[in-house]
Predict the structure.
Amino acid sequence: DVKVTQSSRYLVKRTGEKVFLECVQDMDHENMFWYRQDPGLGLRLIYFSYDVKMKEKGDIPEGYSVSREKKERFSLILESASTNQTSMYLCASSRRDSNQPQHFGDGTRLSIL
Amino acid sequence: SQKIEQNSEALNIQEGKTATLTCNYTNYSPAYLQWYRQDPGRGPVFLLLIRENEKEKRKERLKVTFDTTLKQSLFHITASQPADSATYLCAPNTGGFKTIFGAGTRLFVKA
């Protein structure tokens, strides 16, 4: 069974801090994704990666960066956290083909004070 | 811009009835469409994928239809159970890496 593990379920940080969210998958998937989920807005894609060291911007990349140094790990970085980045962050992975289902972690609920 | 609409209001039905959820999309032509289930505090879980050349797909008590003329997908759960209570997300995809997810419809099945 595919397992996508996010490092924290809940996280509280202060405005201006640099925040790291970590995601690890154990199924050797090529693709990895970072989303944020807000009430009424659905899942919005921040960044995705289709290979090690490769990344593509999603719909809302501003204020975020990502790192993929190893195939199984995809990190989301909030360079200088702001209160409007308070949200649920979900990581997902999938096989290379675009029609493959995405497997999600259980999310990190991030609060920026 | 590409847009997906799912009923924002929750759907309440009685156990044993068929639940029908709607997904409408505009301004693009997806090659396939996925449905996911999300429980509170958990990530979405993949349920079904239907391709543009398929009218209908079934899996146990689940049935999905895909009407490319109406730009609509319907998701049915027959003989619904309280355990089916969750939020259901539709996700049309044009074939690229970027999948657009709807905001989801919350389903409550009462015993």
